[in-house]
Amino acid sequence: MSRCTAPALDAASLDLGAFQAAGGKLLQYHGWGDAAISALSSIEYYDSVQTFFSKFPDARSAAGAAIADFYRLFMVPGMGHCGGGEGPNTFDILAALEQWVEHGKAPDQIPASHSTNGAVDRTRPLCPYPQLAMYKGAGSIDDAASFVCRGR
Known about the structure:
This protein is of the alpha+beta class. 24% of the residues lie in helices and 23% in strands. The strands form 3 sheets. A two-stranded parallel ribbon has the order 1-2.
């Protein structure tokens, strides 16, 4: 990030305590194929927020909620900068956020698809970091039903 764009684009604060205490919900996604901004920057920020909350419990709510209770990161395989790419790059992050905010249902996965010439040719679940979509060992590798979200 250049020095001139960093103030506008960098996430500077790790203390999301006030946001969390106010009932805020944050869904972040980043494509692994993003050529403009490294996908590792989103992972680094998420991990840094996690570390901050573990080191400074005062930043957490009285209930001691983990960051997954208000902040989830979804890494998108093969997706470029904000979309496109060979991976499952079509998904409704807003609907997932709406379900979380309005109905209290945090997304354990988000269905995603890839299309070629307007026809869906691949589906896959997007999993909350650090989980990954793991192939079950049977079924089509282009069908989300053949995958499960789990840790490494």
